[in-house]
Amino acid sequence: MAIAKKVQGFIDRASWIRRMFEQGAALRQRFGEENVFDFTLGNPSVEPPEAFKQELLDLAQNPQPGMHRYMNNAGYEETRAAVAQVLVQKSDLAVKPSQVVMTCGAGGALNVVLKTILNPGEEVIILAPFFVEYKFYIDNHGGTPVEVWTDRNTFQPDLEAIEAAIGPKTRAIILNSPNNPTGVIYPRDTLEQLGRILEQKEKELNRQIYVISDEPYARLSYDGLEVPCIFNAVRNSVIVTSHSKDLALPGERIGYLAANPEMNEVDLFIEGAVFCNRVLGFVNAPALMQRLVSHLQHVSVDIQEYQDKRDILYLHLSKMGFEMVKPQGGFYLFPRSPLADDIEFVKQAQNHNILLVPGSGFGAPGYFRIAYCIDRSIIERSLPAWEKLARETVK
Ligand code: PLP
């Protein structure tokens, strides 16, 4: 075999993603771009905010000597200071620039953190439904994913189930709030309870257990809801995030990780993370993007636009009989599949030119995901097709 057996196995298991793309492309060719309603990708259709373009122009017109060179593997001081300042405001804790490492997106940050903390065979708890890449990232660094279901009615963490899953090999729990694919936000009280459980378990098992809080949607919350800061709830916590969604820059690969200043042996953790950023081959986050986002820490895309899209879909799909939790943030809906087989449902949706991702892809058969980071006009034009699909499938 020309490639590693494990990778071949992963490709085979993930082949539904490829099939979905192929089917989408075939539908577009047959019916035309505007007649296919593609809700599959978390790739924002909105443009970055005006302030981003201004910064980009400024930088292009006033290039600084050395601005394309390597820098400290952790990133520019100026950028780390800007991020730290935001986190100080958010947490009221003394987060230092030295506790921030700039990374190639949230995906890069997750890999850096996992490489930094995992010994071979150690376990990482992930909460189903989960972001599809978590299992691959954990495997990248010799870890073992342990799936724990959230509450199936609310998609909130099931603290008893998490507690029961923690054992002598547990090294970390990945949280993702606002959540992909469910759109729920974990409230402060839940995070604080989790913090207390972990403190107890750390004592009992005599080992450090991290919460990795994956937050690329943290600035996309609706109805004025606040996304609580994990630092105030869990001592051994690290934030991983990016500007892929809040500044609509997913292709630019700019993000960061930040350690809770109260973390046990925080300096050692950061030293490890900076080293791993280097040896994973990322070396450092893109230089130009670091310069730009330093000045954009209080800027984001128009959140009202996403909230309006959520409202249109939630209102109409609920009326049609689809059951779902109303998202509080992010840009996904995760309704229950009206057919027992979610893959069959997604196939049936394709007959109406609606492209969706089956819940099975998120470790959650029996549901499907709608990504509504697409043009509002496509959402509105898709409603008659949804009506037909509902008449066929919703009992
Ligand atoms: N984590 C979650 C939950 C995501 O949904 C995504 C992207 O969709 C990522 C991480 C990766 O983000 P990035 O593009 O910043 O690597």
Automatic annotation (TrEMBL):
Top EC class of this enzyme: transferase
Stored CDD domains: AAT_like (cd00609)
Pfam families according to UniProt: Aminotran_1_2
Superkingdom of the organism of origin: Bacteria
Enzyme nomenclature, EC number: 2.6.1.1
MF terms (GO), sorted A to Z: L-aspartate:2-oxoglutarate aminotransferase activity; pyridoxal phosphate binding
PANTHER family: ASPARTATE AMINOTRANSFERASE YHDR-RELATED (PTHR42691)
Protein's recorded name: Aspartate aminotransferase
Species in which this protein is naturally found: Geoalkalibacter subterraneus
Lineage of producing organism: Bacteria, Pseudomonadati, Thermodesulfobacteriota, Desulfuromonadia, Desulfuromonadales
